[in-house]
Every structure is written in structure tokens, then in C-alpha cells.
Amino acid sequence: MNDPAPLLDLAARELRHELLPQLSGEARYRAAMAVRAMEIALRSLREGNALAERERQALAALYGAEAATEELAALRRRLAHDIRRGRFDEPEARRRLEAALNVRVACRLALSWPGYR
């Protein structure tokens, strides 16, 4: 199977619409958690690469042209290091940091809680 998304989508829909309504108590809670996890995994399969690239671009923009080709993991490590050493303590730098972090949060929410606003 090349694309697991349709199978995962079918399983999540069946569980949510057919099985979940028949459950109660602890079993319903656990099944709902499983459906939620499947839906997050499905969104990650479908949108994860685009969202990761969006975050990578936001972090690269924070650092300028020198970071244009850096990978997301490297940019995240660099960001954590720079935050710890105070690189973004000045008001303008903090504003640019907040903008980049807002993109990161929006990308994370798009996967885990797409209806959030």
C-alpha cells in the first residue's frame, strides 16, 4: 500500500460514527482517544510536510539568508540555543521571535486541533 491515509481515514470514521456511539464510560473515553490519535496521524500524513516546511521557512526568515537552506531540526536547535543565550531579548528581536513562534504554534495546532481559533 502506497498511501495509508485512506485506510486510516476509513478506520477513524468507522470508529467515530459506528462504534463510539455504542460505547459508554471508560471504553467510550478510550475509543475517543484512539479516534483522536488516528485523526491527528491522518492530518500529519496529509499535511505534515507542508506544515513543517512552513515552520522551517518562518525560522529561516528569523535568521535571514544564511539560514535559507537549513533543515528544520537544525533551526529548532539553533533557536533553543539562541533563546537561552538571550539573542531575542531586545524588543525588535523579540517581536520577530514571537512572529516565528506564532507560525510554529499555528502549524502544531493545524495537526492537533484544526478547529482552534
What topology does this entry show?
Elements (H helix, E strand, L loop, with lengths): L4 H15 L5 H39 L8 H13 L6 H22 L5
Helix pairs in contact: 1-2, 2-3, 2-4
What report would you give on this structure?
The chain has one domain (5-112). It is built from 4 helices and no strands. The protein has helices at 5-19, 25-63, 72-84, 91-112. The two termini are 35 Å apart. The chain has 117 residues and is mainly alpha-helical.
Strand-pairing-aware structural class: mainly alpha
Largest sheet: none
Fraction of residues in helix: over 70%
Strand residues, percent: under 5%
First-to-last CA distance:
35 Å
Shape category: elongated
Q: What's the β-strand tally?
A: 0
- Number of domain modules: 1
Rounded mean pLDDT score? 94
Order of helices and strands: HHHH
- Helix tally equals 4
Radius of gyration: 19 Å
Question: Quick recap of the structure?
Answer:
The chain is mainly α and 117 residues long.
Keywords:
117 residues, mainly alpha, 4 helices, 76% helix, elongated
